[in-house]
Amino acid sequence: MKNSCRVCNKNADNQVFRIQEMMFKSEKFYDYFLCKTCNTLQIISNNNEDNSTYPNDYYSYKKTDNRIKNFLIHQRDSYLMFGKNILGFFIQYFAKGPDIIALASITSDKNAGILDIGCGSGAFIKRLNSLGFNNCVGVDPFIDKDIYDASGKLIVKKDNLYSINEIYDVITFNHSFEHIPDFQGTLLHANKILVEKGVCIIRIPIFPSFAWKKYKENWVQIDAPRHINIFSIQAIAKISEESNFIIEHIYDDSNYFQFLGSEKRNNSVGISKLKLIIDRVYWNIKASKLNRIGQGDQKVFVLRKNN
Ligand SMILES: [Zn+2]
Q1: Among residues 83, 187, 192, 252, which is most buried (max CB within 10 A)?
Q2: Residue 52 lies in a domain
Q3: Which residues pair with 161 in a beta bridge?
Q4: How far, in Å, are 66, 101, 173 from residue 119 at the CA level?
Q5: Is the pLDDT of residue 28 over 80?
Q6: What pTM was computed for the model?
Q7: What is the pLDDT of residues 258-292, one digit of tens each?
Q8: Which residue range is the domain that position 284 belongs to?
């Protein structure tokens, strides 16, 4: 079956995979093809969105109001961003904070202008605010309305990225870039609203990986139909260059989820919480090994604005 790739525009007889929606158990199947040229796995028709694609209980819309959990996350984030937090030092062994690690590698300046694109209900921005960052905001077109904190400060703007014209030092895509139909236009606009030599951080699932080879159609991070494109390194290199970015750094930040999620055990009945915690630690160790050899199922791309 001939398909035209959205990244490299090559029209070829590409292999097609039938992927079942897994997160909400809709039992629907979606066809994806794998571009022979740039190795991007992409959904054939991206007109699948209906009310069931991103229901209200989709994880990035959930509010995190568990005080103890938020306290522990704050300690960990504080350690990852600024160091000098003994409790945070221990917590990060059990619950990593890859979004903070990625940002901390670029800046810990609390006045830095930071825009998080596709941020859902703004959990990442709230965490940055609680670390003392005072110039950060999220944008997401799919939330109900703008989100403010208790003091009236804007957390998330319900808007299309293209209507954002303020200038930022850092722009982040924390597992949102793979959901965006117009990825090229999005990255071009991100470039336009960055300061000179500004940085864009893209954290995405990547193709291929050990998890893809092991689980194929059951690899949890295909997440049909929400993930429109699972890009390869060469695909991101092409898109970055065409958006006037230079790739400064690439590294893996995959975790236990590629295994537990793919084996559909997260929601299994009969598996005790203790077993899940042990499995999580076990699979996190395995994920760290894969990350070290570049075979994890997600990567971080640090892009520097070239002009
Ligand atoms: Zn391609």
Answers
A1: 187
A2: no
A3: none
A4: 19, 17, 8
A5: yes
A6: 0.93
A7: 998 888 745 555 567 777 788 888 899 999 999 99
A8: 3-47+66-305
